[in-house]
Amino acid sequence: MKAIWIISKRELKVFFDSLIAYILIVVFLGISGFFTWLYGSDVFFTGQASLQPFFGIAYWTLFFFIPALTMKMIAEEKKSGTIELLLTKAVSDWQVIWGKFLACLILIAIALGLTIPYYLTIWAIGPVDHGAVWSGYLGTLLMSMAYIGIGLFASSITNNQIVAFLTSLFVGVFFLIIFDVLANNFTGFTGQLFNYLSLSTHFESISRGVIDTKSLLYFFSVTFFGLFLAESALSKRNIVE
Predict the structure, then answer these.
(1) At a CB cut-off of 8 Å and minimum separation 6, what does 7 contact?
(2) What is the pTM of this model?
(3) pLDDT tens digits, residue range 133-179?
């Protein structure tokens, strides 16, 4: 665990030293704030004290931001050769992957934490469903974990950042849109399978305050599978070389 934390701190330092973290946080807060408070928000148009508009925007912005965050984490290190220096240390491939994963998750958690004033403002406006708000934050974090797992996998199979970014988006589209579309066009077991594979199904359920084991298992499974594939890609590369 100590090695994982050391790698995470190293990655976080890279994020903040290169201004990536500041840009991500400012843009995320700017976009989410604009669409939550100034454009199409239920708060001012219907008088409902709810953060659902924010979670709806976060659902899409993180879909693009996280691949942009993860695209260089392994791909750039492979291209520059720094991954070799890292792997010659007393760390395993799994520790490298988990360290990078934790760094991304912490940065996303910081960005979400800075939106707590949205929650406090909504609370001041009127009665708010606190359970739904915290469930929404939980759902957003779980969704972010899945995106990070997919992003690290995409970054592990190439040394080109753009390819990693596009691959992450391509895979993410299946979970975000295509499985949902297929679920609506099939019935029976096939329809239920695609419905379960759809990320939106589980995110919407949790963001409404319905937290069940199926949704938790889904997000943890997608996350772990993405990290497992990333570790496998890193291991195969080491064997070949």
Answers:
(1) 86, 91, 95, 96, 98, 99, 100, 103
(2) 0.90
(3) 899 999 999 999 999 999 999 999 988 899 999 999 999 999 988 99
